[in-house]
Fold:
Amino acid sequence: MYAQMVKTAGSGVKDRDEMSEQEQDFQDRIDRGEKIEPKDWMPDNYRITLIRQIGQHAHSEVVGQLPEGNWITRAPTLERKAILLAKVQDEAGHGLYLYGAAETLGVSRDEITEDLLAGRMKYSSIFNYPTLNWADMGAVGWLVDGAAIINQVALQRTSYGPYARAMVRICKEESFHARQGYHIMMKMASGTPEQKAMAQDALNRLWYPVLMMFGPSDKESVHTAQSMAWKIKMDTNDELRQKFVDQTVQQIEYLGLELPDPNIKWNDETKQYDYSDPDWTEFFDVIKGNGPCNVDRMAARNKAWDDGKWVRDGLMAHAEKKAAAKVAAQ
Ligand code: FAQ
Structure:
């Protein structure tokens, strides 16, 4: 459905004189900072861009449960197990808020899930990397949720009302997620030499994949110009990535760990840290399906979808039976 809509839509940022009167009015509303609501008129491409971004965001929350869910049974203490369980459950909730926001745009959750399972929609590249040990639970919470927060705090001001409102609650929960991750890192970095080495290794392995979460460099980003004109995105990919680096370097230093990139250096002129770009060839390869865990992640999502069919069918049959009984009673 979403994929069909994309095929029929045009693309490219329009100059004002190329816009219809209706499109100009719409752009004026955006420029005034008004929120767009589900029943308001909107250009087809605005709707499609939102379905793509919100849908992919929802899929990321759900697929994102897999690398951490894998560690629930192996958490080192009961307290850590309870925290991780609550966090992973929150991610399912985030998926639900976001699928709900996408549904206000005229697609059903089933349709976009089928688009994901058929490879027509993406989810965040980061979840195609493995979580090898307990230190990775710290690094995921700290870095992955930390990166997600930087992106999502800005999205609380996005122009589409249901998406912006979903982000408010999600950001509150994400901040708990990032803190529990950083707490694991603090414990490990101040633990035995072996624990500190595990924390360093997790940081080193996840650093570049986390930088990739913000998307390709601004030069390579296809959607940024139009999405920013419509305030679907509030900052460019590189701006958010820089914010993340500037915030995280000091956290790494506080932990007493080594910087994962020898080129990270404070730049007195720009008042921000210089850093090395991730390997963009690897990024494009991962989003094409060739990352270390893409096959496993999609197999897990397909299995969950197939195994859940009897539940969905049962609920539908029950709803139909109830509706028929109501009609018969009238
Ligand atoms: N992974 O033109 P752009 C989380 C694709 S939530 C995969 O720059 P755009 C919480 C992009 O879709 C993490 N694909 O695209 C959590 C496009 O391809 P398309 C998810 C990527 O949309 C924590 C193409 O590349 N967050 O982690 C990625 O303007 C722990 C060109 O790129 C969101 O989704 C990528 N990293 O900017 C859960 C936030 N980057 O669609 C569990 C909302 C780019 O044309 C555990 N999304 N692509 O086929 C956004 O802000 C934007 O969509 C960006 C990408 C910034 C991700």
Notes: The chain has a mean pLDDT of 95.
